[in-house]
Structure formats: structure tokens, C-alpha cells
């Protein structure tokens, strides 16, 4: 049994073609989690939203499931389709631990969907495919926020048939690019078969199924990768490099291992030599209850993985989204600089050859 104490929150990215519904799906996950309320609120990070396991389990309407899962929740990256998540990588793997690939069931696969799938395949990232916008199927009678099967069983037969046909087109397209796939509820072995879940980001149908399948994937395939050392040196990936009034150039990042403290020496990727600097401030979003405050952010002295934060530090100009950031000491800095340079170079060769 894995030690729960050192298991961090898996990081999930949402991928897929523009307009197929990534943002809507994320909003729905966030919104319904807020509504789930009492089980524990979601936490807003910089660039990410954390949904605790209690909220997910409550949303799925089956508290007995709580015991089955050891992960503390899921951390969703808020910038779907961000270049850093679709073509760059960290530590030789995809930045995210898990992914959701969104495809509009009425439109089928597009080049961006296929590109996402190829990247996931390359990095062996576990993922689910959601066949979105089922509410647009002619004659669909929505059952808001229901599990897909509950809703499906309430549809007229010709509507079910139409959905089945569209659904099997998606399965066929996945097969054509080398994936065995099936409807998520028919899969026994998620290692060899990709789960596909018909959903609607608008009505919320199927969302609980998506969350459950993600937890299942995390549980089955990620436990080993999710172990982390809470007191170890921080390891992160840069999400965005941004000017903030009063702070100068700042970097938004996802810390996925170890600890980051104010004053730490950090090394991060840039197009030239890696940047070496010291953390001046660690910033988190101000809680909603304090929204009246002028300041968007609150400062903290220390954070532990997995979190999305903003940092300010001298010399951040030239930092590169999608590249690694690591905490260094006098003993480790030379090796870290070398490793980061190599990683950034490798990524650039990769993305160049990927076209
Ligand atoms: P993104 O570009 O992939 O992030 O796509 P968006 O989430 O912005 O959605 C693109 C458009 O499709 C918007 O007009 C959404 O309102 C709409 N949309 C997204 N999901 C659904 C859905 O499940 N049903 C319907 N009917 N429309 C949707």
C-alpha cells in the first residue's frame, strides 16, 4: 500500500481542438465543485484549480468510494490548449500526469485533436477522451448533471442510436491512429483500452463519470509517480511569463515536487543560458472572501507540491514557458544548470522536428 502522506495531487490538463469545449468543461468542473460546497471547497491556484477528493466523491454520489482512492484530489490546469502543455515537457514526460482530450461528437477529430493524442502516446500519459456536446444531438432530452448512463437510458431509441453511431465514429478514428478505445463503462483493462465518455459541458451530463475515470487512472497508473518529498528541493514547470504592475516580470509555475521558499536560489530555462536568481516573493490568489482588497495576490513564505503559484524574482526576463524550474543549493547548482540547459535544448529540437 502506498503511503498516502507523501502522495501529491495529480496534475490534469485538458487538450483538444479549439471550440470543442475545453474551457466550458473546465468551468463546469469548477462550478459544480463550488456547488458541492460542504464536502470542502475547491482551491484556486495561480493557473490551476484544485478539486479535493471529497468534492469529487460527493459529486459522484457514492461516499463509499472515498476509501478506494488514495490521491488527495485533482489539480486542473486552467489554460487549455496552452502551448506549454501540448508540445513541451518536463522531466522527460508530459507536464501533466493525466489528460482529458475533448472532441466535439458532432464534428469528430481535427488536426489539433490528433496532435494531442500523439503527444500523449509519446509520453505515455494516461488520458480519457470525452465526446462532448451530446446535448446538441437532435431530440436530446437533457438530465442535468446526471451520469452519462442515467441520461442515455432516458433518451428515445432513435436518439440513442444516433449517439451510438456518432460515438463509434470517434472510436473508429481513435483506432485509425493506433488506440483501442471503448465506452468507459465497458472497459475492464484501462491499460490497453482508452475510455471514451460522452458528455455535455453545458448540461453537466457525464462530468461525474469523467472525474471518476480520472481518479481511477491516477490510482492505477500514477501512484509511483505521485510520491514526493515534501522537504526536498522544489521542482516546477513554468506556465507563463508575465508582467505584473508593481512586481515587474513574474513567472507562473506549477510546483510538482518538493518545496519552494522565499529566498531560495532557483534555476529556470531560457533560450540562452539558464537563468539563476533568488525568489523574492511567492504569490497565491487572494481568497474570494477578501476580494475587496486592492491586491490580487497574497504572499506566502513557503509552498509544497503540488501547487500553482506566481513568483517574482530579479532577472526573469527571457524565462520560457514550458521549461523547468528547480531549487538549487551551492552543491547542486552546477549540475542543475547543465541539466536544465540540456532539457531546454532537447525540447526545442523536438518541437522543431514536430513541425
Ligand atoms: P475551447 O476553445 O475548446 O475552450 O471551447 P469552448 O469551451 O470555448 O467552447 C466553444 C463553444 O462551444 C462555446 O460557444 C461553448 O458555449 C460551446 N460549447 C462547449 N461545450 C458545449 C456543450 O457541451 N454543448 C453545447 N451545446 N455547446 C457547447
UniProtKB/TrEMBL annotation:
It comes from the Archaea. One of its GO terms (molecular function) is GTPase activity. Keywords: GTP-binding, Initiation factor, Nucleotide-binding, Protein biosynthesis. GTP binds at residues 16-23, 78-82, 132-135. One of its GO terms (cellular component) is cytoplasm. Residues 7-223 form the Tr-type G domain. Function in general translation initiation by promoting the binding of the formylmethionine-tRNA to ribosomes. Seems to function along with eIF-2. Belongs to the TRAFAC class translation factor GTPase superfamily. Classic translation factor GTPase family. IF-2 subfamily. This is Probable translation initiation factor IF-2. It comes from Methanomethylovorans hollandica (strain DSM 15978 / NBRC 107637 / DMS1). The gene is infB. The chain holds residues 1 to 355 of 591 of the full protein.
Amino acid at each position: 500500500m502506498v503511503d498516502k502522506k507523501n502522495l501529491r495531487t495529480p496534475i490534469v490538463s485538458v487538450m483538444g481542438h479549439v471550440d470543442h469545449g475545453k474551457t466550458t468543461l473546465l468551468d463546469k468542473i469548477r462550478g459544480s465543485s463550488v456547488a458541492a460546497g460542504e464536502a470542502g471547497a475547491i482551491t484556486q491556484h495561480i493557473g490551476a484549480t484544485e478539486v479535493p477528493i471529497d468534492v469529487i466523491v460527493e459529486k459522484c454520489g457514492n461516499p463509499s468510494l472515498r476509501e478506494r482512492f488514495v490521491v488527495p484530489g485533482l489539480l486542473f490546469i486552467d489554460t487549455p490548449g496552452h502551448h506549454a502543455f501540448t508540445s513541451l515537457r518536463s522531466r522527460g514526460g508530459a507536464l501533466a500526469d493525466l489528460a482529458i482530450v475533448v472532441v466535439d461528437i458532432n464534428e469528430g477529430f481535427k488536426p489539433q485533436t490528433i496532435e494531442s493524442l500523439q503527444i500523449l502516446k509519446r509520453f505515455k500519459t494516461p488520458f480519457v477522451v470525452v465526446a462532448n456536446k451530446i446535448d446538441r444531438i437532435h431530440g436530446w432530452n437533457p438530465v442535468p448533471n446526471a451520469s452519462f448512463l442515467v441520461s442515455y437510458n432516458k433518451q428515445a431509441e432513435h436518439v440513442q442510436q444516433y449517439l451510438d453511431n456518432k460515438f463509434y465514429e470517434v472510436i473508429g478514428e481513435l483506432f485509425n491512429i493506433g488506440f483501442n478505445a471503448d465506452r468507459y463503462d465497458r472497459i475492464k483493462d484501462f491499460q490497453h483500452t482508452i475510455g471514451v465518455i460522452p458528455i455535455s459541458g453545458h448540461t453537466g451530463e457525464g462530468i461525474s463519470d469523467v472525474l471518476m475515470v480520472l481518479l481511477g487512472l491516477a490510482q492505477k497508473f500514477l501512484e509511483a509517480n505521485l510520491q514526493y518529498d515534501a522537504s526536498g528541493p522544489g521542482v516546477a514547470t513554468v506556465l507563463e511569463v508575465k508582467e505584473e504592475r508593481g512586481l515587474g516580470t513574474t513567472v507562473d509555475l506549477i510546483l510538482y515536487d518538493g518545496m519552494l521558499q522565499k529566498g531560495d536560489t532557483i534555476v529556470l530555462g531560457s533560450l540562452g543560458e539558464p537563468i539563476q536568481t533568488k525568489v523574492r516573493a511567492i504569490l497565491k490568489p487572494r481568497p474570494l472572501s477578501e476580494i475587496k482588497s486592492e491586491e490580487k495576490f497574497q504572499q506566502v513564505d513557503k509552498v509544497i507540491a503540488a501547487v500553482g503559484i506566481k513568483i517574482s524574482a530579479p532577472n526573469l526576463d527571457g524565462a520560457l514557458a514550458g521549461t523547468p524550474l528547480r531549487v538549487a543549493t551551492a552543491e547542486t547548482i552546477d549540475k542543475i544548470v547543465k541539466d536544465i540547459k540540456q532539457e531546454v535544448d532537447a525540447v526545442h529540437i523536438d518541437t522543431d522536428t514536430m513541425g
